[in-house]
Amino acid sequence: MKSGVGGSTNIEKNQLEVEINQKLTEGQLATLAEELYNTKDKQRRFYIFYNLKDNENTLMAWATSHFDPELEIVINGSTSTEDNKMLNEAQKVQGNIIGIFNEKDYTFSLYTIYEHNGKTFIKTSFKDGESMDNEVEKVSSKNGIRYNYKEDVSQGEYFILNNDVLL
Fold first, then answer.
1. Average pLDDT rounded to a whole number, residues 142-149
2. What predicted TM-score, i.e. pTM, was given to this entire model?
């Protein structure tokens, strides 16, 4: 576990960043938060940010546990149970699956690119169990295969598949 501490006795908060090797349950996070909280000087606010070891480039912490002053836990990413549900949902497509990709930076969802009846689709599977399918156009680009949404549901968003990595 890697950690960094911010704060001193002159301010009313401590902030700690913790790198964990695997996804924890809410109960495990609560236990860890209490242990960490009890090792530090008591401040009114104590913020703990948990990052997963494999998610080095993520823009937000996978989970947080904040004492402000009571403990509040938020899992921003997906839990292992949600991952399994998303994978099951992501595989429920008619046609040929080109690939299933895990997006860990913004949406914490799975994207399935598949072909059916001569058309190409992207299915987005969310951690809450919901999913949506959108038809896409497949275009060759210098960076790989580019997938543009056929209908303007994305505000210009597109995907590029390069060496089995979805960008």
1. 89
2. 0.75
